[in-house]
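Narrative summary of target 7.
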Amino acid sequence: MRNRPGYFASQLKKALKGIGTDEDELNRVVISRCEVDMIQIKEEYETIMKRTLEKHVE
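Modeled conformation, tokenized:
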């Protein structure tokens, strides 16, 4: 996997897509990644979604 942050950002996008949230997937990604990874994942998510992960989760 060449772009790990991109992969996990995509997984978060899928977990948050549509009505309802796939909380199991959301928790799996957030809990399984270290703090440094999450910084990169959040940056990649913002690039993909054009909004912050924090705003999407609110």
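The chain is about 75% helix and 0% strand.
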